[in-house]
Structure formats: C-alpha cells, structure tokens
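As promised in the previous annual report, we have extended the structural survey to additional targets. Below is the entry for RND family efflux transporter MFP subunit.
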Amino acid sequence: MKLNKYTLTISILASLVFAGCASDKAKQKQPQTKANQAEAVQFIHPVSDQPSYSLSLPGELKPYEEVVIYPKVKGFVKKIFADRGSKVKKGQLLAILEAPEISQHYLSARADENKFYEDYLYSLQAYERLKKAATRAGAVAAIELDKARSKFRSDSAAYAAVKATTGASAQLQQYLRIMAPFDGTVIHKNISAGALVGDHAPLFSIAQTNRLRLTVAIPEKHVQAVGKDMKVSFTVSDHPDQLFFSVLSRKSDLLQQDSRSVTAEFDVLNAQHILNGGEYAQVKLTLKRPHATLWVPVSSIVIAQSGIFIVKIENNKSKRISVTAGTRNGELQEVFGPVKETDQILVKGTEELADGTEVKLKS
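The corresponding structure token record, generated without further manual editing, is:
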C-alpha cells in the first residue's frame, strides 16, 4: 500500500512539470501582444472661434442712492413732516429741530455785525474826506491821512470777521431744518416729537427706489468677456413670470481678492415701483470674448492630480500640454496655453499615455 501511494504522487508531479513545459513552449510560439504595438488614436485640430455664450449668475437689486440722515447740531425735535414709506422730493422739509442757544447766538452775531458795519462805514467816510482834502497842499498832514487809512482797514477787517461769524451762526440755524437730499422714499424714521437728538442719533433713512442698481459679481474667468454694451435679463422671486432687462452701466476694473470677481452694475428704471429694491435676482448675461480663442472637444481635456492637460501628437509621439480651461459651449471647451490651430490633439484625452509614447494616427 505505501509503495502504490508514492508511485501515484510521483506520477502527478511529472504530469504537472510536463504540462508547464508545454505551456511555456506555447507562449514562445505566440506573436507579440498588442501592448507592444503602436496604439492607433484619433486626432483633431483646435478651432479658433469667438462665440457668444450665456451665463447665469445671482445678483442683488439695490437703491440707486441711499443715505442715513443725522442731525448736524444737538436739539429737540419740534415737528416731523415725514414718516416711514413717505415719498419725498429733493429739498422737502422732513423735520424741524429747535435749539434756543443757537438762535440766541445768531441774534448776538447779527447785533455785532451791525455795530462793526457802522464802525466800518464811519472809518470809510472819514478816510475819504481826508483823502479829498489832502489834494490841497498843506490842508492835511500826511500822518493824519495814514492814521485814517489804517483805521479804515482795521474796521474793514473786523467787519469781515464778524460777518463770517454771523454766516456760520446762520448756517447752524439752517441745520435745524432737516431736508431731503434727493427724491426717494423714507425707509426708516427713528425720532419722535420732543426727543433730544445729537450727532450720533440717526433721524431718517432715505432710499431712491424709482431707479435701482443691479449688482452682479462676474467671476475672474469671464471678466474679459464682459462687453461695453452688454445686455442682461433677470427675474426676481416676487415676479417669477416677469422678465426685466438692462444694459451694463459701469464695472469696477479691480478684481476683488476675497471673491476673485469684478462687480458690474446695471441701472434699472423703476418709475412704476414694480421692484422694491433689496431683492435678489437671477441674472442671465450674454458674454463674448474681445478676440477669438481656441476650442477643443470636452473629451480632449484631462483633469488629473498633476493638473489639467491635453495630449498633443508630435512626430507620432504623445506629449502632454498643460492648459487652462475657459468656458464651455456645448461639447466644446475653451483652452488657454501653448496650443496652435495646426496642432494635432487627441479627440479622447487619456492619462494612460505618458510623454513620448509612440502612437499611430487613424486616417
């Protein structure tokens, strides 16, 4: 029994060795694998184009002008002529303050002005008379004429100083009358009659709502496509079924570092007050580059850990070209980098082809 078991084991091992040798011989007889042959690829040339494309971005409607009105002087609120929601015109009286000390100071300044004016007139007349008399030889001593001239000039300067003080006091009187700086709507009223107000107490907030500013943050990659007369359309949640239109009015040329964007403003006429201001809007922009750029199929772009690149065929060998992706228009992708229209670019980019890999172009 033991002899038969060993004999069977040796027979099985011999069979396995023979089969392995036969397999090696079969492999040696097989032709080269496809991996050792040049891979056939399809290429395309980049297209130079300057298409218009649409971009949807959030925006914000703001009052064209908005201001918080503070009192220039401290005083008591005597009377109020406007309330929250009131439509006001430029120069319209909103409230009157009273400050007795300011009124008394103004009256005192006016009295001083009248006194110094009389002194100025007397000095002027005296100087004119002496000057006329001095035309006759020996009638007036030269020193007397100089004294009169000096007195006249001194009184003239004193009168001018007092007049300026009176003007400043009169201006303080005007500050007691709170006026609307422009046509608009009173957004906030923070005072009541009889209240004492000072430098840090806001009285009213006024916003101009018959004209609004639509502000939109344009991402850095699209800034160069913002045209001078760019038109936009937008919707707001209050009127989802209504489309509003505007044209670019102004934009900042400085890129905001925190958002990497440029703020564009569009003036919106709102004479019927359909829009309230302060609303968020969904804005659709039509953009166009100032000059033609190169476009390749989206499938040609490879996004890998090493970066974004396309594969270029040069002398039947692959070469990775680092690019920056711009905008997308359908199945085409805008690219920036060392790429020319005459380059042969793989239609289907792949990370598997290393630089210098030999390829065969499909006809």
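The chain has a mean pLDDT of 85. Residues 100-133 form the longest helix (34 residues). These points will be discussed at the next consortium meeting with the crystallography subgroup.
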